[in-house]
Amino acid sequence: MNTLFPDEAKSIVEGLLFVSNEPLTPKVVAEILERNIVEITAVLKEIKADCERYSRGFCLSEVAGGYLFTTRSEHAPYIEKLVKPRLNTLSQAALETLAIIAYRQPITRSEIDEIRGVQSDSCLNTILERGLIEEAGRKEAPGRPVLFATTPDFLKYFGLKSLADLPKLNS
Prior knowledge:
Blueprint: H1 6-19, H2 26-33, H3 37-53, E1 58-63, E2 66-71, H4 76-82, H5 92-104, E3 107-108, H6 109-116, H7 121-129, E4 133-138, E5 146-150, H8 152-158
Antiparallel strand pairs: 1-2, 3-5, 4-5
């Protein structure tokens, strides 16, 4: 086991989080630092608390099964002036299609079309290109149609730990 001092381990974890554009799991960080997951989880919680205590412009968020530095939601109006996220240009139809997939996955193109009442080819292509959905196999049905499901990028973009964090639908 590596003999890092606690502050040094914390500093290294912060550096790893800073350079990663994907959520880092405690397991991955523990392997890199040659420490146990319990220690790394404690370091991650300490980093998260530091971000809050010192009102930093970023925070440590738990998304898609890992941890990632994100900007504070209350700073969104200012950040949007600097960066116009490409995903914000999704049409209402694409967002509707994405919501159907998120709540009903895995789902076929024809099932999506049936729910929407119109063809969804263009919308599906758009959200596939952006990496928010992926092909998730084939349905055991005539023609074996492709099944679609959301990706970890979907969770990351919407700041969700898992699909269980989606808002509940009104019945």
